[in-house]
Amino acid sequence: MSSRRLVGASALLLASLTLAACDAGSALSGDPDDGSSSSSGASGGSNAAGQRPAGRVTANVKRGATVGVDKVVQVTAKDARLTSVTLSSASGAVDGAIADDGARWTASDRLEPGEAYTVKALAEGADGKPVRRTSRFETSPLSLEQQTYPSVSPLAGETVGVGMPVVVSFDVPVTDQAEFERHMTVTSKPAQRGTWHWLSATEAHWRPAKYWQAGTRVSVAVDVNGVAAGNGIYGQEDRVVDFEVGDAHVYKVNAKTHQMKVYSNGKLLRTLPITTGKPGFTTRSGTKVILEKFDRKRMNSETVGIAAGSAEAYDIDDVQWAMRVTYSGEFIHAAPWSTGSQGHANVSHGCTGMSTADAGWLYDLSRRGDVVEYTGTDRPMTLDNGYGDWNASFKDYAQGSALR
Q: What residues are labeled active site?
């Protein structure tokens, strides 16, 4: 976890300096550290009749304790009002906030593994006397195998198509998916209803109820740093990723008529003659999303289970304008060798082929996340073969949420 929150390092340093400045002149270095709560009265909290009670400050972590990284530190004042609290380690300060009534300070983040922490609190007692408390504790160390790192797609600053789901992948399985999901949020402007769907213990997707609205701005917050993932695993780092949604590109492929209709923001731009998979290599029907783009790509049949030397084997260098739409090997690409069949017959091994000119035009128009809707075959698309998130009703898709 030493790598986490690099982006926020400056903010943490500023927070540390600011909170430390609040303690100037408070002589906290001489505070008691004997494991008891600190109070403002020399008599240990007793007061004569008619006097205001002595203030007390306590923390929810005992002095000298060893705690887990998922501990959220709190400092509480009784018969006193907190004026400053700092929580820090060698890695920096942990931000927090004092409640409006001054009765409680709560850390806004969890802890780092294998660190020694110091809590310093200053309050003003109801009797007008200062109350100081210093506590020191440690966190348990964690190996990389005990931490799970979240990778997020789309990338920060990326502009994607209206079919692009949010994808969070974890490098160590998450067994307490409900707890993680509570700390994973997607917000958009304009706001759009959506849900998480766990494809596995290492991958969660979020999609809106309908395709994104063109021009939407989206922010993804995966606030799992220090969150328990189950089986002794903890989140390694928080992630915040902002991206935008571009024009609404929806391409409608009909394998029976051998045509692709290209729509942008609801307007039909072109109808392209195409070819799809021949018998035995039927193209899947359903909603697909462009996963990645290659201006040139080698295509070898062995990568899709067709053995070299067989009658259906192929190995073609530099296939132009290739756009992947399934993990299993379906692409949209230029196929100059099949122009005679395009618009008339299905002769491919499952890919959608078109002329080089048409493929180049479509490639330039397209981006990751654009939608390709296929009809005309009896072979269905699945949720997990690429970004197949749209091949279920929103109601059914929501059943994949760990919080359903």
A: 333, 351
